[in-house]
Specification:
This protein is an alpha/beta fold. The chain contains 19 helices and 15 strands. The strands form two sheets. Strands 14-13-12-11-7-10-9-8-15 form a nine-stranded mixed β-sheet. A six-stranded parallel β-sheet has the order 3-2-1-4-5-6, with helices on both faces. The structure holds nicotinamide-adenine-dinucleotide (NAD). The site of nicotinamide-adenine-dinucleotide has 24 residues, from helix 3 and helix 6. Nicotinamide-adenine-dinucleotide binds next to helix 3 and helix 6.
Amino acid sequence: MTQPMDRREFLKVSGGASAGLFLANFDGGPYSYAAAKGEKPLRIGVIGTGNRGRSLLSNLLLMPGLEFPALCDIDLNALAQAQDMVVKAGHPKPEGYSNGTEDFQRLLWREDIDAVVIASPWNWHTPMAVYAMRNKKYAAVEVPIAMTFEECWDLVNAYEETGVPCMMLENWSFRQDNLALLNMVRKGMFGDVVHVQCSHTHDCIDHWFFSPEGNMRWGGRFLIEHNRSQYPTHAMGPVWPWLNLGCGDYIVTAVSMTNRQMGINAYFARKFGPKHPYAKMAFAQGDVVTTLVRTKLGNTIYVKYDMQLPRPYDNQWELQGTLGIYNEQRNALYLTGKSPEYHQWEPFPPHMEKHDHAWWRKVKEQAPGAAHGGTDYLELTLFLEAVRKKTQTPIDVYDSVLMSSIIPLSEKSIAGGFVPVECPDFTRGKWKTKKPAFGVEA
Ligand SMILES: NC(=O)c1ccc[n+]([C@@H]2O[C@H](COP(=O)([O-])OP(=O)(O)OC[C@H]3O[C@@H](n4cnc5c(N)ncnc54)[C@H](O)[C@@H]3O)[C@@H](O)[C@H]2O)c1
């Protein structure tokens, strides 16, 4: 096992460097998904090897040019399963870190780790990401990266003090349909985009907030004390580049409404009987939270949380501009003066094919069958490419925080009696001059 850094060593790397120093060549060159011949392998650690951590690991194990010196999980069983996956893929067994909730720190002290993937519960994302940056490790962090304004600032401050990039793994930013739409928006096909709707609508009561047996999982605990849009980043994932948020526009204010909580109690009464404790327990979280956001340019976004009533999954993206509209549920669009029939939807798939993003043309060749239809593979390869070239990650810390800020904005709005809440400018004004970078095609 590699010896962990001692305290003095750790302090040496934990501060001081500026963003400019760490990012040797920010603009990078044309991307390549695999290591070039003769390039040193990248050494990856994974923190949190539960369901999502192992799913991400399965994607990483498909990629050439990677080594896996260490993994961390407080659950020995989850850790062992991940170690087995690595060994079965033909690598040496990774060192395991499982000695309590802070043991991830020892993994991050190692000098033979270039980057970490973090897939722990929500409350651990920010502390782990900040610790990674302060130990000069690129971090790819599961969603949402932050739950409070304080955590958002912690991330921004750590990035600005260390210069080490950190990316939230918001996979829906990388979906093929969403990226094709981004290309269409950038070509001006919708005119000026003025309004977007988005949702995370997914019944997670019986497998994620609670186990199928009715036991509370870590996610369920957030429903007891908090009433807010708990999981908005999948909804916001494609929206911020469509609207140039963080690079030309920014959130000014948000206001949220929520209904009462009935879904959790009703589910437990239905499935386990009215005497089940969760059939009566008071949960703070309302069943549906709707948030309205207004931006500096005067555009609006509708964000919906709906995760505890019976329903199939969808994201309900709809984008409206001065020249037309796109609707994800209909898989259709309408462009004034261009669509074949006046005021009639036309199918989106031919447009998606025509405006397919270069990232997708490449990933389809390289990873047919990867998880989430290749989206997870794509986001990880782009993250690793940034690590390899020491460039900025495709989603940077400001983008990550912006998407996550819907959580504290909505919580504050609801707690204050459904009042508008001002969004802090986490870029400290940089949004005014930053040019769009995400997915810009050469
Ligand atoms: N992007 C997506 O599509 C997607 C899908 C599912 C989950 N997620 C996110 O992934 C994360 C993990 O979710 P999951 O469903 O895999 O949960 P999970 O419970 O299956 O896994 C979390 C793991 O973290 C471990 N853990 C907890 N505290 C730890 C600590 N201090 N140090 C090390 N390990 C610790 C747990 O033991 C567990 O194995 C969540 O943030 C979730 O929001 C994202």
